[in-house]
Write a structure and sequence with these properties.
This protein is an alpha/beta fold. It is 32% helix and 23% strand.
């Protein structure tokens, strides 16, 4: 799951100028941490932009600097990746990413982690991440919403409409941070959607992916899937066939995150 060590990205204060025209109200600005080329923001990125969000996508594996804080941003989105949440030695930007999560949580700046991002949020806030003893989760998995999801600020508009989500993960948050709330779980009882702290959420599934993204991941897992008898073509076809269902189910998550980011921007204006 890990690769050769990548160069450590710089961290520095982010003083990006406000590019909104004079007199215009700027859009919420979300910092996006992308961990590798084949794990882009994809559909969630598009939906956020359609909801009026400005994305600041950083690629630390290419050497992009991560900001030292989120003073120039209204929310943090941490994407997935094939590395583990504790693989800082091979992927040194994971350390400042986890620090950004802690900084955001202390400042009550909204955070959303996807798959590895969810694991990084959990790990940063005191949880534990480990291999799933049942093995890799691949393909569409039922979403088991809990009662706590109904009035959650992020997923209240998503549950119970989202009945399935795409999984492609080896690891899980096996011990949640203190005070975390499970909002959804898999049929096997694994944490699937979590409010790790007030304003900090994680989803183990992948609301952002389409068949093209999954197809790229399948190439890297071809050998071990063949050994396990996983029919990759069938998995990809099932994801593709569910496209309308998944879009309708998970687009509201992006809209809700845009809304909480806009709420943070409005709160900053009033401070």
């Amino acid at each position: 799951m890990s690769r050769a060590a990548d160069p450590a990205p710089d961290t520095a204060p982010d003083t990006a100028p406000d590019t909104a025209p004079t007199g215009a109200r700027r859009r919420p600005r979300v910092l996006v941490v992308q961990h590798q080329e084949d794990c882009p923001p994809a559909l969630v990125g598009r939906w956020l932009e359609e909801a009026g969000v400005e994305l600041d996508v950083r690629h630390p594996y290419r050497g992009d600097a991560l900001p030292a804080d989120l003073a120039a941003h209204d929310a943090l989105l941490v994407l997935g990746g094939s590395m583990g949440a504790d693989d800082d030695a091979d992927h040194p930007w994971l350390t400042p990413t986890k620090q950004l999560v802690r900084t955001a949580t202390r400042a009550e700046t909204p955070v959303l982690g996807v798959c590895l991002g969810h694991q990084l949020v959990g790990r940063a806030l005191g949880g534990r991440v480990d291999r799933n003893p049942r093995g890799q989760q691949v393909g569409l998995v039922e979403t088991g919403w809990t009662a706590a999801a109904a009035d959650d600020a992020l997923v209240g508009a998503v549950a119970p409409g989202a009945q399935r989500g795409v999984h492609w993960n080896d690891d899980l948050v096996v011990e949640l941070p203190p005070g975390a709330v499970v909002l959804a779980q898999t049929p096997a009882g694994e944490a699937q959607v979590v409010r790790h702290a007030p304003g900090a959420w994680g989803v183990q599934l992948h609301p952002e992916v389409d068949a093209a993204v999954v197809r790229a991941w399948a190439v890297g897992d071809a050998e071990r899937h063949a050994a396990r008898g996983v029919d990759q073509a069938a998995v990809i076809a099932e994801v593709d066939a569910a496209r309308a269902e998944l879009d309708a189910a998970w687009r509201p998550l992006a809209q809700a995150f845009a809304d909480v980011a806009a709420g943070e921007l409005e709160a900053a204006r009033q401070r």
